[in-house]
Amino acid sequence: MKPTMISSTARRKPRARLPVAGVIGGVIVAFWLVMAVIGPYIAPHDVGGVAGDAVFAPISAEYPLGTDYLGRDMLSRVLHGAPYTIGVALAAVIVASFGGTALALFAAASGGWFDAIVSRIVDVKLSIPSKLLALIMIAAFGSSVPVLILTAGIGYMPGAYRISRALAVNVQAMDYVQAARSRGEGLAYITFYEMLPNMLRPVLADLGLRFLFIVLLLSGMSFLGLGVQPPEADWGSLVRENIIGLSEGAPAVIVPAIAIATLTIAVNMVIDGFAGRKRRGG
Amino acid sequence: MNSTTLRLIANRFGAGILTLLAVSVVIFTITNLLPGDAAQAMLGQESTPELLAALREKFGLDQPAHIRYFHWLGGLLQGDPGVALANGLPVAELIGSRLPNSLTLAAATAAVSVPLALAIGIGTAMVRGSLFDRVVNVATVWVVSVPEFLIATVAVLIFAVKLRWLSALSRADDIATFGEFLRVYAMPVMTLCCVIVAQMARMTRAAVIDQLNSSYVEMARLKGVRPVRMVLTHALPNAVGPIANAVALSLSYLIGGVIIVESIFNYPGIASLMVDSVTMRDMPVVQACAMLFCAGYLVLLTIADVASVLSNPRLRK
């Protein structure tokens, strides 16, 4: 009796076990999401407060992450940057994924000329690299938070559209959708109650990847001085404004960059752990 | 190579040119959406309605948008994309002086990254599932998901600040010996390679594993062919197409990476020219650089496409 019980639990265990890396990633992502909301309120120092002569100070008890090029507390700067880095990227990913999925569902459902036109436009959009599009948009409209959200949102919408459209076309051919159609259900019912729930998992995994790309794009732009404008700063701008401290090996340069890396790697771990081995395509 | 294949390849190139045209419309539209034009930007504070009208007429800015577009496109095709607003120099001259630098950087990166990535990709595919494979796998995922400037700053911190082997700034104009060439290019190339090698190695690994799972490899294995020989003479020739596709696709990531890397190392290439022009909103330069990058990107995408057509008989039908 006993051996069979052990073997049966042993057999079932790998199935029920949570992916360790995924859980660790989830905890880190959750931590940063919370910080994006409460970070500015729990910052230990005034974000503009200059700490006397301690420019590029090393890590100490008073300044856990050192100080920046003006002698401001880095921990507070990073906490104040969190809403920008994470919030702007979240807004952009919502524009990209929701817009892309909605367009894809509509295109798949209506078919015909609408589908053809949107697919052509998407093909053209995909042949402009997203960093390049961001540079053109910022050159044309200047840099502000709405422009950044729109740029990243539009830049990553075509990819989301492509994936959702492929999924929608597959799901559309399923028997239950055909059944709903022959039952006489409306287009909205079929789209939201029959198709969308069956596409949700890959669409969410794609949303995670897109969030990661957008964080990288926006911090890249901020690093070039074209993203969030001073006096506000996201993590990319923090790296940029402290770059002269690099020759002294100041923590102020590397800390914000590591903050970005922990966020993006954690997102990757969550996707890998929970959405199966779905890999980035492009 | 029969006529069907040739026609298919011609089709891909035709589609590429049409896409580039569409891209030029997009770039022109975005950069012309806002009111305010080059004439206004040049005159700045001193603008009077009369001066403005005269300057507009000189540049042809008084004409409707579609005529200006064709004028601009014609200029691009003739190699004359206009005059930079910042210093009045012809854009072609600005780009011409910096393009060789960027191409050298790209060539050096390709020369290092392609062999390295192929070796890593094929190597990990051969020992699939081993500790080495898993470590490389995790490392590549991590490298692709961190920003390029983190890799660059860490490289500067280690090699220029701590070890003092290399200088943090690149100056491409005073290279006399191969040693100096290495010192100048080592860090930009290393940073770019990190990004591309990870991507390319992953795709190469997937392409080789795809072949290793096929039934003819199973057959060879049953005949008793040794593993190394099996990969090199049986699987690899069939994976060449997908690998060429992977190489071209990964090299297209250079375009994103080079924008950051040229700026961080102060490298005098066209990507840093474009970033500076975006900061100054110097539209003619931005437009020309953007078209140049998009053309390069499309060429690589088309090569990737053609490589997969040539290697896969089923796509040729």
Average pLDDT of chain A, to the nearest integer?
Answer: 81
CATH level-4 homologous superfamily of chain A: MetI-like
Number of strands of chain B: 0
Note the gap between the termini of chain B.
12 Å
What percentage of residues of chain B falls in helices of 4 or more residues? over 70%
Alpha-carbon distance between the two ends of chain A: 53 Å
Structural class of chain B: mainly alpha
Counted beta strands of chain A: 0
CATH architecture of chain A: Orthogonal Bundle
Number of helices of chain B: 13
Query: Count the helices of chain A. How many?
Result: 10
Q: What kind of sheet is the major sheet of chain B?
A: none
The CATH topology of chain A turns out to be: MetI-like fold
CATH class of chain A: Mainly Alpha
Let me know the average pLDDT of chain B: 81
Topology of chain B as a string of helices (H) and strands (E): HHHHHHHHHHHHH
Provide a brief overview of the structure.
The complex is a heterodimer of chains A (282) and B (317). With 282 residues, chain A is mostly helical.
Describe the structure.
The complex is a heterodimer of chains A (282) and B (317). Chain A is an all-alpha fold and 282 residues long. Chain A is built from ten helices and no strands. Chain A is elongated, with a radius of gyration of 23 Å. In chain B, 78% of the residues lie in helices and 0% in strands. The longest helix of chain B is centred in the middle third of the chain and has 36 residues, at 91-126. The chains are: A mainly alpha (282), B mainly alpha (317).
What key attributes describe this structure?
heterodimer, A: 282 residues, mainly alpha, disordered C terminus, B: 317 residues
